[in-house]
Amino acid sequence: MDIKLPKLGEGADSGSVVGILVKAGDKVEAGQTIIELENEKAIAPIPSPVAGVVTQIFVKEGQKISVGQKIIALEEAAGGAAANPAPDGKTTAKAAPAKKAAPAATPPPAVAAPVAAPVVDDGPRNENPAASPSIRKLARDLGIDLTRIHGTERGGRIVMGDLKAYIERLQNLAFAPKPAAAGATAPAPVAESIDFSQFGPVTRKPMSTLRQVIARRMHESSSIIPQVTQFDEADITDLMELRKKFTAKFEAKGARLTLTPFTLKAAVAALRQSPAFNSSLDEATKEIVFKDYYHIGMAVDTEAGLIVPVIRDVDKKTMLQLSLELQSLAERTRQRKVSADEMKGGTFTISNQGAIGGGHFTPIINRPEAAILGLGKSAWRPRVKGDKIVPRLIMPVCVTYDHRLIDGGAAARFIVQIVQALENWKEEQVA
């Protein structure tokens, strides 16, 4: 029997093979992973629905395959139910071979249909057009309705000149420039391949499935959403001292206390005060959807590219729970073991580049969210405290927002709320 690619999930019908875990002659058990498939930003294990021995492999690494496409052939184990996998991943009993049906009579070859032409409104139709047999045959071959042509000869008889004039009128209508519909966007420019090797040595390599997904989503976001970025700075000197105080306590419980859990909690506090930043625009209904839950996406830098898993119900979790979940989620994300469901449902995203370097930047919104928070690398800066200049640890902060939903004043208030939450942490909030 042939094992085919099952349905991968809602809206997912294809992926790229990143690993083949069996070879011809191997015995496999029902439920054993036979290939690993990269779909969107996740890698999904594809199991065998039945036990048996691999007789043939139809795919290879790097190949893009679709639902229903053959993956491997199996010789089922003795006593195994003969089954064929359906496209949705379920198996169905193998039907008894049907009797070979008699071949149907071969239909006569069809005449190619003419290209559809615009309808010409010539007023009342000529229900009984008068025309010679040769004109009728030509009109029939061209797919032209003679009742739409009004003849110029005596009695309304249609002649060759009338037929030619009608065809010319159809062509003029077909190729005339059409006015753009209200709200229509200009057509996308045609992609052009440039031969860069004419200027010097080059190396080409295909874009990975993940990189194509990132490129498509970033293009969609920046093309559809009018985005504005607001900047500020947060003094996290006291916050980092507080973190040091609790580091040993968290490590004793197997957790690493970083700046990220503090930022997650600060984000929720600001989102509660500014619900527009925790909303989405339903473009089909022209409604703003305000969400009463706080699922925060965390942008993770991996060797394959940027992946954004989601931490759910941040408002309901303790700092310890968030620290433990962050460790597990970040590690699985870098190993490409995070599932597609773990990257859905986010209401707001945080991109922290502090560990890498750089200061302010302009992150792109993770559509269909309304905003994204960016954190840069903190550095010691001189600041005035009272009548003294003292060194303080300053972190660049920025928020990019959807200007269709959020105005500049609201964005300024929101980033101030973020900064205040980071600068005014109390010990009881950590424990």
Write a brief structural summary.
The chain has 431 residues and is of the alpha+beta class. The protein has eight helices and 23 strands.
What this model shows, in words?
The protein has 431 residues and is an alpha+beta fold. It folds into three domains: 2-92, Beta Barrel (OB fold (Dihydrolipoamide Acetyltransferase, E2P)), CATH 2.40.50.100; 130-172, Irregular (Dihydrolipoamide Transferase), CATH 4.10.320.10; 227-430, Chloramphenicol acetyltransferase-like domain (Chloramphenicol Acetyltransferase), CATH 3.30.559.10. It contains eight helices and 23 strands. It has helices spanning 133-142, 160-175, 209-224, 237-251, 259-273, 319-334, 408-423, 427-430; strands at 2-4, 14-20, 27-28, 33-39, 42-47, 52-57, 64-66, 70-76, 83-85, 91-93, 130-131, 157-158, 227-235, 279-282, 287-290, 296-298, 300-301, 306-307, 310-311, 348-352, 371-375, 379-385, 388-402. The strands form seven sheets. Strands 13, 16, 19, 20, 21, 22 and 23 form a seven-stranded mixed sheet that branches. A hairpin with a 2-residue loop joins strand 4 (33-39) and strand 5. The chain is extended, with a radius of gyration of 32 Å. Mean pLDDT is 84; it is low at 80-122.
Show the helix and strand layout.
Blueprint: E1 2-4, E2 14-20, E3 27-28, E4 33-39, E5 42-47, E6 52-57, E7 64-66, E8 70-76, E9 83-85, E10 91-93, E11 130-131, H1 133-142, E12 157-158, H2 160-175, H3 209-224, E13 227-235, H4 237-251, H5 259-273, E14 279-282, E15 287-290, E16 296-298, E17 300-301, E18 306-307, E19 310-311, H6 319-334, E20 348-352, E21 371-375, E22 379-385, E23 388-402, H7 408-423, H8 427-430
Parallel strand pairs: 11-12, 16-20, 20-21
Antiparallel strand pairs: 1-8, 2-4, 2-7, 3-6, 4-5, 6-8, 9-10, 13-23, 14-15, 16-19, 17-18, 21-23, 22-23
Helix pairs in contact: 5-6, 5-7
